[in-house]
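[job 4417] fold queue: 2 targets
>>> target A
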Amino acid sequence: MAESVLSISGIEKTFHGEGEDCPALSGVSFNVASGEIVCIMGPSGCGKSTLLRIIGRLEHEDKGSIRTIAEHVGEGVSAAMIFQDHALFPWLSVEENIIYGLRLSAQKIPDTEMQRRVDDLLSLIHLTSFARSLPHELSGGMKQRVSVARALAIRPSILLMDEPFSALDIFTRRELEDEILRIRQELKTTILMVTHNPEEAVYIADRIIILSERPGVVAGIITVTLPHPRSPADPDFIRIREEVAGRVKGRNEVGCAIQHE
């Protein structure tokens, strides 16, 4: 395996409500290699999205540490997040949405370099002819491709994706899964993605990390060695998918009014 770009060690998180505490994560530890696609799965409420938000520094852990290997950090940016909702600004064009994060970034990037990055990313996601279009003129899949390009514009060392395709129909979702695989191949991007879909995980992931019921701990790690492109009809694909689905199943026995994924 390639050198680790992300090291997660002993992450713990508890949410505090009125009169009760809700433990979300307990001692979560794993590494992610440079250029690897890792999917995080687990029962509803096991802390998947909470873990991703902690890695993206949108949430603070109670204990543990997260370390990004310096050699792989692009210009000081460690991670960029893509959410289930594309979250594009409706009044900005595709091009303006992609460049928005660059203008807010602490990186000192000349306008000519910003434009070059945007042009390259529009070409990468096959939306060059839609550069001046507004979000309402795009399909759901096109909007999510723009959100991917916007995240990649700051050249993060890791791309974090929180169920980015769950709201899309199966055909659009498969198309975007293929896009992610192509982008990983072209840019050598490291990707950490939360998904509820065992087939999606087996289709794109190099490894699948399964969290237990709340509080989430690493209950297992499944390595997927099938070559790409992968076919969901392949017997080995089906076997791995059923293994993943079987290990994810389970009821959450901890009653907790504070619900966090």
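>>> target B
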Amino acid sequence: MSPILTETLALYLNACRKTGQSLARGWMTMVAVVGFGFLLMFATQIASPLGMAGGFLLGAVNALLVGATLSLIEQSISHSRALTFHDILTSVGHYFWDVIGIGFILWLPLMALDLTMQTNPFGQLLSYAVFLLLFLLLNPAPEIIYQVRHDSPLEVFKTSYEFVLENWIEWFLPFAVILIPIVLSPVGLQSFLSLSSRVGRGAGLDFFQVLVLPFTILGGWLDYMGIPSSISWYLGLLFTPPLAVAMLLFRGHLFASLHGVSRRQRRFVSPFK
């Protein structure tokens, strides 16, 4: 086995080990994610008839919930104690302005893109291309928010771009593996492009997509294993919260291992420290 492959596998095994430890400490995050999901659904019902004002209200609620979730993930990764219900309450308000700032910067260009593509015969294809690019280049934005010191949303974009260029193989390989059943399905490419466009639109900071992404992945794997859709739907609902939290924790630990460390440097550092 080549040294590069060995080092990469060791990197993922280390991230998985730490993810398990963080999940045991931060299982309350799963409870929070379920509660946050119901809160966002309630906010959506209130905001729907309010037009543009409702859109701003929903954006603020989304930023509040995403920021709180990132705070709980951060605590699960960095703290040695188990999280409590009090930690859920105190997490509300964390990273709110970071999420709002990134969403605001993306909002105007994406709105202009939507309007332009409506009259373009290749609009859907071009939109998919733009959102796929955003999905790739801004993928580590959530981890940058709570792990890297930054003074503005533009610095988050810059750090994300530089991180992806340096670590795109190690960062995206686990995601590519878990997407295999979706990509291999009869409508796999369309499903992937649709999924990436939804996630890319919000730079991974849309709370609904925090749940929709693992739900979609679970559905793909259950379908791949031949489980009937009538059963897989309920299994998806049951296992989506723990999978969503596990994915966020794994991303957090993997990002911490990759950020600021080159491939050459990782060769001289034990991944199990």
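[job 4417] complete. Note on B: The mean pLDDT is 84.
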